[in-house]
Structure formats: C-alpha cells, structure tokens
Amino acid sequence: MSRTYTPKASEIERRWLVVDADGQTLGRLASRVAGLLTGKHKPGYATHIDTGDHVIVVNAAKIRVTGDKLDSVTYARHSGYPGGFREEKLGQLLERRPEEVVRRAVKGMLPHTTLGTQQLRKLKVYAGKDHPHQAQQPEPESATAGGARS
Predict the structure, then answer these.
(1) Per-residue DSSP letters for 101-134?
(2) What is the pTM of this model?
(3) Binning pLDDT at 50, 70 and 90, where does residue 148 land?
C-alpha cells in the first residue's frame, strides 16, 4: 500500500518572487499569483498545507481590464450599521486603491478557509514599481518553473 506524501513544515522552502503587473490582464495575473501563493508550481504541493511562496506584485496601477468591466464590475461592502452599504465600480477603485483591486482578485481565487487567509498574508501589492522587501532578495517570477509567458 502506498501512502500520500505530506511535506513537513521544515521541508517547505519559501522564496520571495516579484511579479510585474504592468500591462497584464487582471484575471490572468491573479490566477498566476494565486498558483504561486498556494504552491501549485512546486513538486511537493499538498492541498491541505500552505507550501507556497511570498509574492510581491508591483505596478498594480498599470493593470489592464478588458471589455466594459471598469463600469460593470462593482465591489460591495457593509459596515454593519444601518445605511452602511457601500458600492464602488472597478474603475473608481482602480483610481483610488489599485492594490486593493489586485488583492481582491487574488483572494477570490484562493481557498475560502483559514488556509486561504494564511496564503493571502504572503501577498504584498504595490501601486508603483518600488517595494520595501529588498532585504528578502526577491527574484523575478519568470525564473520559476511555471513562470510567465510574455
């Protein structure tokens, strides 16, 4: 009888990867980043364990969306108070907080459990090209096995 391989916490090797969002389509970028956060590009991937890498997304303000999504996609939230419902179009949120657009797109592609929350913590998104993570020696995402095909 063969047993399923489960990586131990000490065996998981996490790297820091930089993904440039300049000119990328939002959904395609988000699915690629979600795969890196979950660790699906690694041979030791396990569905129930966080084996993914840390991902830094830069140039989030230069993300692209197709069609009329800037006007048709809406983000809704509620404060919990009476009259606290707020709605915002994708175009408005992209102007105000482009990092939040990318973060929400990636969050929707991760598991909706505590594991997904843990994986989302490893995502860092910045509107411009600068980020404060030089000490972690991040490498470009295309250097990974299932990297970007530009």
Answers:
(1) HHHHHHHTTS-SSHHHHHHHTTEEE-SSS--S-G
(2) 0.89
(3) very low
